[in-house]
Each structure stands twice: as structure tokens, then as C-alpha cells.
Specification:
Elements lengths: L1 H25 L1 H7 L10 H4 L7 E7 L16 H16 L5 E5 L9 H10 L4 E6 L12 E5 L7 H11 L1 H4 L6 H33 L11 E3 L11 E5 L6 H7 L2 H29 L1
Parallel strand pairs: 1-2, 1-3, 3-6, 4-5
Antiparallel strand pairs: 4-6
Helix pairs in contact: 1-2, 1-8, 4-10, 8-10
Bound molecules: zinc ion.
Length: 287
């Protein structure tokens, strides 16, 4: 048994060395950003990461922006505007929390490529990333909220695949060329740390679904998984919340009201707080 454990350790060390080397060759900047973040033990340090200046940084990411309007409703409402309002309200609601500081990837109507949103979260030392959307679907009767986490295998449903393809196309709208090397880089990092991060993302997703459930229809009862480019931070628990379908005429109307946006924002901020509370309880148990 002991031999097996040490062999395992050796493999892990070799993986780590290999990935470090590959990172240095492929992306020296990524090494700088990542070297302090890759946990070397099996326990996820991201979840236990000490708060910066006494506060955990929550990175809220209003989807789309600028040239990329996101989905557009029948009445002409644009997803990029609605989600900025919701994200701003979540930030306001969290601002009174003693241990959480919420920041936005964009607070104006500007275009940010998906990979840059991931980088912004890392630069700010975020311990949680949440992309906020109100997407469209081909069928206008599709309704309700859904929460997505990253999958490095397949999409968990046809809807998950459809939405991730749409969201990932945002960079094509903005004329950004995603480099092939990113795929290779991400593949290496997945193997090392992403399994734990995805586990925490699923926990975060569950908390957000639990707080949305009493106030709005859920399109899916469980956190779905798909290969959303914006959720690919190797060590930051990340989810994408589809608050509603802007292509559903009823939901487009709801999204146009301050009352509904505030209701959704309140549910999201409570979900985030509940997630941190659970992390703290867990940390106390293991320390
Ligand atoms: Zn969207």
C-alpha cells in the first residue's frame, strides 16, 4: 500500500513538473498568474483561501456587452443591459456583508472577451466567479432559471450544449481569435486542479438554485455542466447563472421590472452567502 501511495505521489509530482514546464513554454504570463494558486495537496486550497484584506472577493460577470448584445427579446430588450442591472444589484446587496467584497468584470456597456473575464477574476484574487445571463433559446416557451458549472467531458443536456455554444461564440462576435495553445494549457490544468474546483462550483450552484427555487421557476433542478469558456478558471469556483429566458415573452416582461431583477439579485446574493457559510463550516471541521 505504501509503495502505491509513493508511486502516486511521484506521478503527481511528475505531472506538476511537466505542467509547470509546459506552462512556461506556452504562456509565461499564465505561470505568473497561476504559480501561487495551484494547490499541491488533494485538498482544495481555493475553497479555503484566506480572504484578501479580511474580505473574500466575489467576481460578478455581467454577460456580453458592447458589440455583443447577447440575446434579444421580442420587445427588443437586450440581455447585456438586463444582466448588468442584475449584477449591479447583487454587488449592492453584498456590500453590507462584513466578509465579502463583490466586484464586476464590467460596469459599463463594453465588450470583454471571455478569456479576459477569467483573467480579471484571477488578477483580483477572486475566490468565487459568477457569470450572469438571461439567454435566449430557439423555443420561445423555454422558461426559468438554470445554473451551469464547467464540464471537461460532455454537456449534461442538449440545452447545456446549446447555451455553451452560444456563450462561447461571444468572442467570435467581438473578433477575438482564441488561440489553440489555450486548449492545451487548459487540458493540463484540468487534470491537476479542476476536479476539486468543479466540485466546489457544483456546491455553489446548488446553493444558488436553492435560493432561486422559492421565487422563480427553475428550468433545471440541478446544476448542469457544459464547456463554458468563461468558467475555465482552474482554481476559482465558477458558475454561470441563466436568470431567465429573454426570448420568453413573459420572462422578457419580468426582466424589464426592477422588482423582478431585485428578487433574482437577492436570491443570487443569498446563495453566495450560504456557499461561504458552508465553506467556513467545512474548514472548521477539517482544521
Ligand atoms: Zn448570455
Amino acid at each position: 500500500m505504501k509503495k502505491l501511495a509513493s508511486l502516486k505521489q511521484l506521478i503527481n509530482r511528475r505531472q506538476l513538473l511537466f505542467s509547470g514546464l509546459a506552462l512556461a513554454v506556452l504562456s509565461p504570463r499564465a505561470v505568473l498568474a497561476e504559480e501561487s494558486r495551484i494547490p499541491v495537496s488533494r485538498h482544495n486550497k481555493a475553497a479555503a483561501k484566506a480572504p484578501k484584506n479580511g474580505k473574500f472577493i466575489v467576481m460578478l460577470d455581467p454577460g456580453h456587452g458592447g458589440i455583443d448584445s447577447g440575446a434579444i427579446g421580442e420587445e427588443g430588450s437586450m440581455e447585456k443591459h438586463v444582466v448588468l442591472e442584475i449584477a449591479n444589484t447583487v454587488r449592492q446587496l453584498l456590500s453590507s456583508h462584513p466578509h465579502i467584497e463583490a466586484r464586476l468584470t464590467r460596469d459599463t456597456d463594453n465588450f470583454i472577451p471571455l478569456y479576459q473575464r477569467v483573467e480579471i477574476a484571477q488578477q483580483h484574487g477572486a475566490s468565487l466567479f459568477m457569470s450572469i445571463h438571461a439567454d435566449g433559446y430557439t423555443d420561445p416557451s423555454a422558461r426559468g432559471a438554470s445554473v451551469f458549472a464547467l464540464s471537461n467531458r460532455g454537456a449534461s443536456s442538449a440545452m447545456a450544449r446549446y447555451l455553451s455554444d452560444r456563450e462561447n461564440a461571444a468572442d467570435a462576435v467581438g473578433g477575438v481569435k482564441v488561440q489553440q495553445k489555450d486548449q492545451y494549457l487548459q487540458q493540463i490544468l484540468f487534470d491537476l486542479v479542476q476536479t476539486d474546483t468543479i466540485k466546489n462550483s457544483l456546491t455553489l450552484g446548488k446553493h444558488v438554485l436553492d435560493t432561486i427555487r422559492p421565487i422563480h421557476h427553475l428550468h433545471s433542478q440541478h446544476t448542469e455542466q457544459a464547456a463554458f469558456a468563461v468558467l475555465k478558471s482552474p482554481s476559482i469556483p465558477s458558475v454561470l447563472v441563466e436568470t431567465s429566458f429573454i426570448t420568453n415573452p413573459n420572462e422578457e416582461q419580468l426582466l424589464g421590472t426592477t422588482a423582478f431583477r431585485k428578487k433574482i439579485a437577492t436570491a443570487i446574493s443569498s446563495g453566495i452567502i450560504n456557499f461561504y457559510n458552508e465553506q467556513q463550516r467545512h474548514n472548521r471541521r477539517v482544521s
